[in-house]
Amino acid sequence: MAEEATYDVVIIGGGAAGLAASIYSVRAMLKTLVIERTALGGQILYTGEIENYPGFPEPIGGPELAMLYAKQATRFGVEFQYDTITHLELEGPIKKLIGEEGEYTAKTVIITSGGEHNKLEVPGEEEFSGRGVSYCATCDGNFFRDQDVTVVGGGDAAMDEGLYLTRMTNSVTVVHRREELRASKILQERAFGNPKMSFVWNSAIKEIKGNGDVGSIVVENLKTGELSERETTGVFVYIGFHPINDFMIGAIDLDPAGHVVTDIQMQTSVPGVFAAGDVRTYSERQLANAVGDGVAAALAAYRYISEG
Ligand code: NAP
Question: Is the pTM of this model over 0.70?
Fold first, then answer.
């Protein structure tokens, strides 16, 4: 007798994209498993208050929203498994996922493993995370109204988010390790032309200090070695973002930055395998987009199975 897949859909990652996909998948009567390595919710677990998610006129706590997603998925019969997937075998109609705790088979796979912001790895970063240290200006900018904040990095994300922060803060100081930016010319022009933005070149943050909340940073001039302390209440870190992709290298096409390549229906290079949210190429890295991507991926998986 031919081998049968245990699940119609296995979703790797229980963040917003994965949980949204699971709700649509199970409501399409597909047997659905979500595999999560740590805690359901993904990036929103690290967001104190979410103010920009449509439908919530009052801010909602990230962990609270994560719990609501999980509750909704559970109510419809989604199954959950805590495991870390280590590799994928995607050839043929039955996809095999190998984890540290077990093996799983499915007709379709939705990859929603997300990503992680690169960290400065300096003293104070961890301690003040969520209390002045942030990786998301669009999420947290409003908490820094009329304050003097710092952005770290010289790429598109640093300039984009720095410019966004000028709308509500008093000043934005960019600390960058070289004396030229990596960001696109148009963003550079906008940043240099914005009177609220200033630049500290050839410099690196060595320590983030404060008393409960961030109060100052210790900055090293990388050319002279000189250390100085600067007052600031917010440190926004934009030194790159890495997708969580170690388990799929070689099994699926990735873009040069390591994101899963998809079409607009979330189809990857392997038929029956979809990707959604921050792990996919061109993601906007916003909660609403992750949810939308997850829904699109679930609908595409449903079509793939029903057109069989
Ligand atoms: P990125 O382009 O890789 O830039 C990272 C920046 O952080 C660089 O300036 C880099 O310095 C600096 N950096 C890296 N490691 C550091 C460290 N340990 N300490 C201090 N500084 C460090 O990353 P990104 O800005 O997140 O952008 C990622 C991708 O998304 C890019 O392809 C970008 O074009 C795209 N994106 C586009 C937009 C847009 O078009 N509006 C917005 C956001 C992101 P060096 O320059 O010295 O290497």
Answer: yes
